[in-house]
Specification:
Shape: globular
Mean pLDDT: 92
Number of domains: 1
Number of strands: 0
Strand content: under 5%
Largest sheet: none
């Protein structure tokens, strides 16, 4: 049974790779991802050096800050592992997420630049060696509007094909958003707007994949 699945999977990827459009989109997409990853630290360090506006957030005022980094990243990395497994099985999902992440990252770079914000009162920094490695030497707290963690998890829920998987990741999106507020990592506005960013990125990625 396992061997049959591996053969089917190999045939699906071979069939997809035979299309020049698929090959080109994967190649260009991966090059863009590498480029973005390389410039990430410089961009976020520049963002961190700015001053911004401190928002009056009534939701955060009633939530005592607690360090829930472990819970946040249990959700995020569980979703990531599930998504990687599904993407390996589905070339279309793999391509859609690559371009969705590119568009999402570009949108966040623009909104973070246009909406400079001061860190929320009581912010407790997220501790995650893998994610923090992309931000540079200085700890980043001003990459606020909108939430990258929440929007990325929501984007995965749109890209993944199975109904059960979609529901599980949607639940994870809600929990991640709530836990980010508990840790005062983001303002409520950052978390509420995040799914809209993920949805817009998914729509743009679908156009790239279909074309």
């Amino acid at each position: 049974m396992a061997q049959t699945k591996l053969i089917t999977l190999k045939e699906e990827w071979q069939g997809a790779w035979q299309h020049r459009g698929f090959r080109n989109k994967v190649t260009v997409g991966m090059l863009v991802v590498i480029f973005i990853t390389c410039i990430f630290p410089y961009y976020f360090q520049a963002v961190e050096s700015r001053t911004g506006v401190l928002l009056n957030d009534p939701v955060l005022r009633i939530i005592p800050p607690h360090n829930v980094s472990v819970a946040i990243f249990i959700f995020i990395w569980a979703v990531s592992l599930l998504s990687i497994l599904r993407a390996v099985q589905n070339p279309s999902m793999f391509l859609t997420f690559i371009w969705g992440w590119i568009f999402l990252t570009a949108m966040r770079a623009i909104t973070i630049y246009l909406v400079p914000l001061e860190p929320p009162v009581g912010l407790i920094g997220l501790v995650d060696p893998l994610s923090n490695a992309f931000y540079g030497d200085k700890f980043v707290t001003r990459d606020l509007f909108f939430s990258g963690h929440t929007s990325t998890v929501f984007l995965l829920s749109l890209c993944i094909p199975g109904k059960l998987d979609k529901k599980l990741i949607l639940v994870a999106t809600i929990f991640v958003g709530i836990l980010l507020l508990v840790q005062h990592v983001h303002y409520t506005l950052d978390v509420v707007v995040a799914p809209l960013g993920g949805w817009a990125a998914w729509l743009l990625a679908r156009k790239v994949v279909k074309e």
